[in-house]
Amino acid sequence: MSAPLGLPDPERENALLVGIIEAISAGPALEPLAARVAQLIVAATGTDVCFVHVLDDGRGALTLTGATPPFDTYAGKIHLPVGEGVTGWVASHRAPAVISSSKEADPRYRYFPELDGRSYTSMVSVPMESGMTGLVGVLNVHTRVHREFTERDVRLLTSIGSLVAGAVHQARLHRRLAAREQAAERFAEQVVAAQEAERRRLAGDIHDGITQRLVSLSYHLDAAADAVGRAAAGDVAGRELERARELTDLTLAEAHAALAGLRPPVLEDLGLADALASLARSVRQVRVSVLADDQRLPEHMEIALYRIAQEALQNIVKHSGAAAASVELRCDATRALLRVSDKGRGFDAAGRDPDSASYGLRSMAERAELIGGRLDVTSRPGVGTTVTATVPVPAPAD
Predict the structure, then answer these.
(1) Domains delineated in the chain
(2) What is the pTM of this model?
(3) What is the pLDDT of residues 28-61, one digit of tens each?
């Protein structure tokens, strides 16, 4: 005589549903959800093992995502094409399959040595689907001893599969969103890295080419001045040589300044807070105060924020007419805020056509957007300008 499937009475059924709802509410991670649901179903139904197979994004295969011990170690390692095996048949036909005995004789059955199918006699396989989600996977239960499964048994397991389908669908959406966010962050890192590599290349070209030639030119000018002689210092040739020497020195100083801007070593060595302080000291024309949290951020974020501050200070020097400016960096667990302010001549930011924004403002906005943030510019004539970059700080990887 076969034993009945130990499906729950109304009280145990309610406990099962509550347990599944609690598992769904625990978080969006797919694997823990599938493992917990498998354990709850086995405990409530009196079956021996439960497997939760989830449809891949390509919808061409099923992956074992959760199982009761000792098969939980195979989660993520067993893959089955849709249409192959009992599980694949259920997925392709979207209909339950019941095998009470002689599984090997069923043409739909496929043996997996890892899952020890020959140790289990009877099984029920139901689709996990709902009208809102469509098919998301297949739910299987197995028993060692022979059992006859009733229509009520299948209906209850199908209802459980439908309930779990919504949670699996949400978990998969969360995983896709997380993957896209990671891809976007990697893209931002790659773009920033490419920009910095180009800056390093330009810095090398300036140092090895332009700067060296300017130094050589300076030596030649000194030699020419000596050849003309000190007595001729006041004539036309002497004056032109002196002027050429002054222009060479000025150009060489500008080349050195460009090198410092293209590749600030302090950012790599000491971090963003110290790099901002160094940047402020390098601005001779304006007195710049810095108030910065000494918290390390991902490298590509530090580079982008440094470049935004650099461009903002250059704009102050060129356009504001201000005698002083301030740089503020605030960081917490979720965001970083960079604010650069001056009390210079300002402009009408409210009435300005966004398409007419200067290259510097567009460049800062693009850098902020690249790392997932935004740039806000507030300004009024005669009051000054404030540039604020706000960017999200990624959570630490588990």
Answers:
(1) 3-182 (3.30.450.40), 264-398 (3.30.565.10)
(2) 0.50
(3) 678 888 888 899 888 878 899 999 999 887 778 9
